[in-house]
C-alpha cells in the first residue's frame, strides 16, 4: 500500500475488504518496511544487516533488523485493534523462500542462492520464523482464519538461472524444478501444521502454476491480464483440483479503473476457454489488484480495493 501510516492503511483495508483484510505493507516507510527486510526480521537464528547492495547475513543483529522487527510489531498491533471481533479470514504475507534466497546476500556479498548449504539454513530459519509469526497472529486474532501468502516475484529468475552474482559478471545456476517444489512443500507443511492455507503470489507472465500445485498450495495469485493462454491447461487443472485463483484484474499502480463488469472480463474469458461452469467462479476466484500498490496514489489504492470488492460481487451474481 502507499503511504507511511499503518493506522491509515489498515483502516482502509479493513473498511474496503472486510471479507479478506490483510496486514498492509508500507515500503515507503523505508528500510525494514520492504518485503525482504520484513521477512528477514522473522528469520530464526539468521541475523541480517542492510548494506548499500542490499540485505546481507551477518553475525549479529543490527539497527536495521531491529527497525524491521519494530515495523512488523507495530503493524500487528494496529491490525489487532482494527480487527477486534473479526471472525473471518485474514491474510499475512512474507517473501517466499526462493525470492528470499535470491535477494539476501552471504557475508561476502554473493546471493544466498549460490550456496546450497546456506539455502537449507535459510529455509529452516524461515520456516521456524514463519511458524512463530503465524502463532502470534492467531493469538492476536483468535476468531480469524489466517491465510499465508508467499510472495515469489523472483521465482522465475531462480528457475531460469537469471539471478546475478554479486559482481554481475555471471548468474547463479538455475534451481531444478523438483528442488524448488521440495522447499515450497516444506513451507506449505509448516503452515499446515498451524492449520493455515498457503497462497503463492507472482506477477510474472509465466507463473509456474503446475509446480505450485505440486507443492500443495491452496491458491495461486497472479496478474491475469498478463498471463498467456499457454497457461490455460495448467490453470484449468489447478482450478478443477480445488486451487483458488486470486485473479489480479484491477489495475494496481495507475491507469484507468473500469466498471466492475469490464474488470472481471479476463476471469469470464478464462472460464469460457476452460469450459468451466460459470457458477463456479464465485467460489473459485478472489478478485485482486494486478500486483502491489505501493507506487499508486492513496486515492487510486482506495478506489482499486473498492472496485475489487464490487467486481467480486459481479462474479457472485453470475
Radius of gyration: 19 Å
Indicate the structural class: alpha/beta
Q: What's the shape?
A: globular
Low-confidence stretches: none
Strand order of the largest sheet: 3-4-5-6-7-8
The major sheet is characterized as: 6 strands, parallel
Count of individual beta strands: 8
What's the helical proportion of residues? 40-55%
Q: What percentage of amino acids are in beta strands?
A: 5-15%
List keywords for this structure.
two-stranded antiparallel ribbon; 45% helix; 318 residues; globular; alpha/beta
Kindly describe this structure.
There is one protein chain. The protein has 318 residues and is an alpha/beta fold. The protein has a domain at 6-202. Helix content is 45%, strand content 14%. It contains 13 helices and eight strands. The protein has helices spanning 6-16, 35-40, 63-82, 97-103, 116-140, 155-159, 177-193, 209-214, 232-240, 260-263, 265-274, 281-284, 298-316, and strands spanning 48-51, 54-57, 89-95, 145-151, 198-202, 219-223, 244-250, 285-289. The radius of gyration is 19 Å and the shape is globular. The mean pLDDT is 96.
Secondary structure elements and pairings:
Elements: H1 6-16, H2 35-40, E1 48-51, E2 54-57, H3 63-82, E3 89-95, H4 97-103, H5 116-140, E4 145-151, H6 155-159, H7 177-193, E5 198-202, H8 209-214, E6 219-223, H9 232-240, E7 244-250, H10 260-263, H11 265-274, H12 281-284, E8 285-289, H13 298-316
Parallel strand pairs: 3-4, 4-5, 5-6, 6-7, 7-8
Antiparallel strand pairs: 1-2
Amino acid at each position: 500500500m502507499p503511504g507511511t501510516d499503518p493506522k491509515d492503511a489498515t483502516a482502509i483495508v479493513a473498511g474496503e475488504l472486510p471479507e479478506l483484510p490483510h496486514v498492509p505493507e508500507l515500503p515507503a516507510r523505508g528500510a525494514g518496511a520492504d518485503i525482504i527486510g520484513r521477512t528477514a526480521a522473522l528469520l530464526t537464528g539468521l541475523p541480517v544487516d542492510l548494506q548499500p547492495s542490499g540485505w546481507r547475513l551477518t553475525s549479529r543483529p543490527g539497527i536495521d533488523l531491529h527497525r524491521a522487527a519494530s515495523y512488523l510489531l507495530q503493524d500487528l498491533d494496529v491490525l489487532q485493534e482494527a480487527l477486534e471481533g473479526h471472525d473471518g479470514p485474514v491474510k499475512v504475507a512474507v517473501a517466499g523462500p526462493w525470492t528470499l534466497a535470491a535477494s539476501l546476500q552471504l557475508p561476502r556479498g554473493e546471493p544466498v542462492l549460490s550456496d546450497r548449504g546456506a539455502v537449507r539454513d535459510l529455509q529452516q530459519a524461515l520456516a521456524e520464523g514463519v511458524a512463530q509469526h503465524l502463532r502470534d497472529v492467531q493469538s492476536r486474532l483468535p476468531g480469524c482464519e489466517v491465510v499465508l501468502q508467499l510472495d515469489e516475484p523472483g521465482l522465475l529468475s531462480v528457475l531460469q538461472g537469471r539471478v546475478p552474482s554479486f559482481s554481475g559478471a555471471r548468474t547463479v545456476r538455475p534451481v531444478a524444478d523438483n528442488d524448488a517444489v521440495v522447499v515450497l512443500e516444506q513451507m506449505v507443511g509448516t503452515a499446515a501444521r498451524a492449520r493455515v492455507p498457503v497462497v503463492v503470489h507472482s506477477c510474472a507472465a509465466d507463473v509456474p502454476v503446475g509446480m505450485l500445485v505440486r507443492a500443495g498450495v491452496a491458491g495461486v495469485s497472479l496478474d491475469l491480464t498478463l498471463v498467456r493462454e499457454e497457461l490455460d491447461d495448467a490453470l484449468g487443472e489447478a482450478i478443477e483440483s480445488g486451487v483458488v485463483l486470486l485473479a489480479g484484474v484491477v489495475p494496481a499502480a495507475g491507469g484507468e479503473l473500469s466498471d466492475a463488469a469490464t474488470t472481471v472480463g479476463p476471469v469470464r474469458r478464462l472460464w469460457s476457454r476452460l469450459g468451466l461452469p460459470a457458477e463456479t467462479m464465485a467460489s473459485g476466484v478472489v478478485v485482486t489488484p494486478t500486483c502491489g500498490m505501493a507506487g499508486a496514489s492513496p486515492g487510486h489504492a482506495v478506489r482499486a480495493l473498492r472496485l475489487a470488492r464490487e467486481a467480486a460481487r459481479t462474479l457472485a451474481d453470475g
